[in-house]
Amino acid sequence: MRKWASFPLKEGDVSRQAHADFPQQAIYERETGRSGFFGPATHFHHTHAPTGWSDWQGPLRPHLFNFNEIEQNKTMSPWAVPYLLFNSHCKMRTWRLTDSMNKLARNADGDELLFIHEGSAELYCDYGHLSVRDGDYIVIPRSTMWRLVPNEPMFILLIEATNDSYQLPEKGLVGNHAIFDPAMLDTPKINDAFKAQYSEDSWQVEVKRHGQVSVITYPYNPLDAVGWHGDLAVMRINWRDIRPLMSHRYHLPPSAHTTFVAQRFVVCTFVPRPIESDPGALKVPFYHNNDDYDEVLFYHAGDFFSRDNIEKGMVTFHPAGFTHGPHPKAFAAGREYKKKFTDEVAVMLDTRDALEIGDAALATENPDYVNSWKTRPQD
Ligand SMILES: [Fe+2]
Asked: Which residues are in the Homogentisate 1,2-dioxygenase N-terminal domain (predicted)?
């Protein structure tokens, strides 16, 4: 057993409540925190923006990628697309699929999370049939056999929980039915569409294990279950089903928007919500260094209110050890309470271990991103 030293202290001019009622002349609050947003933390009150650097050298830096430009050979296999951001506990990739998969996929390395950025499809898997659309998260348990039949071209974000599984967060004070009711989780059905694909035609399964693909051939379609019972299944939730926690008086940390949890990373979802309205409340994300986590944001839809020049399909990667926060224009707009509502939708991946960047992602990087905070609001 071990515990953090715990001693709430204060030095100099401070606000008593984090993210609200900052001292005069010190409008820049910076949170430095451990264990995500759950460990010891200190809030500094600065007179200059913590992102106001004039130069930056060396390998640690924030990254901006445009995943719309990821090169991909035309492939029907999710295992043929490159890792973009990855470590030994998770693998993020994007996959464009236009034609029906002609083989079944099976990931023996871990659970796979699909986020449908664009398009719609029919999903057939061990558990039956499910129609999927943009904005869907689909959790595919490890070693499930599955295939997609697109109705329109698809752009899918995949996050593998390597040697791990996806679970739901504890919802604590707000109870089991907040954020989304577990009854909103959809599962595949053994329905007419599923029965219509039973066949005696030969089918192959591409199984990925330890990063290598093996191909198993059946002289029939192995998606032939006539029924199942149990408490393990493919499950789906759409971001539109998420009813976000919010407070009109307090900017909640990203952890309030946690959607799925694995052992060494979390996936959070930012969905439309009102902006904080209390006069003293911070109205944009606070400056912070989340010192134990690498943070990745995939921008799905809407206007990304804390960033300038970000479009859907782009990805920011803020490694641990790097202080970040709103861009200057967004910070100034927050001070003036210009926006009353944010319509942004974004998927966040926070990893406890350092992420590597794949070559395919590097090829889409905007090297000037580190300078994007340079204009101070008073300039
Ligand atoms: Fe962050």
From this structure: 93-233
Domains of the chain: residue spans and CATH:
28-48+58-65+243-371 (2.60.120.10), 75-81+88-239 (2.60.120.10)
* Tokens 């002349």, located at residue: 25
CA neighbor of 329 nearest in space, from 292, 303, 354: 303
User: For residue 41, what are the CA distances in angstroms to 58, 171, 218?
Assistant: 27, 21, 56
323 CA to middle of ligand 1, Å?
8
Do residues 76 and 349 lie in contact, with contact meaning Cβ atoms separated by under 8 Å? no
Residue length, the chain?
379
For residue 288, give the nearest of 314, 316, 260, 318 by alpha carbon.
Answer: 318
Degrees, nearest 5: CA angle 232-233-239: 125
Rounded distance from Cα 293 to ligand 1 centre (Å): 9
The arithmetic mean of pLDDT across residues 50-65, rounded, is: 94
Q: What is the pLDDT of residue 38?
A: 86
Phi then psi for residue 299, to 5 deg, are -90, 120
Distances (CA, A) of 348 to 45, 56, 156, 191, 246: 27, 25, 15, 34, 17
Residue 318 C-alpha to ligand 1 middle, in angstroms?
7
pLDDT tens digits along 154-182? 999 999 999 999 999 999 999 999 999 99
Helices (H) and strands (E) in the chain, counts: 3, 22
Q: What span, in angstroms and rounded, lies between the C-alpha atoms of 127 and 186?
A: 12
Lowest mean pLDDT among 46-50, 201-205, 264-268: 46-50
Q: Cα(67)–Cα(86) distance, rounded to whole angstroms?
A: 15
Could you give the CA distance from residue 19 to residue 79 in angstroms, rounded to a whole number?
A: 43
Closest CA to 103 of 73, 142, 147, 144: 147
**Distance from Cα 95 to the centre of ligand 1, integer Å:** 26
| CA-to-CA dists, residue 134 to 38, 125, 309, angstroms | 32, 19, 23
Distance CA 150, CA 147 (A): 10
Q: What is the CA(35)–ligand 1 centre distance, in A? A: 13
Contact 119, 131 (CB under 8 A): no
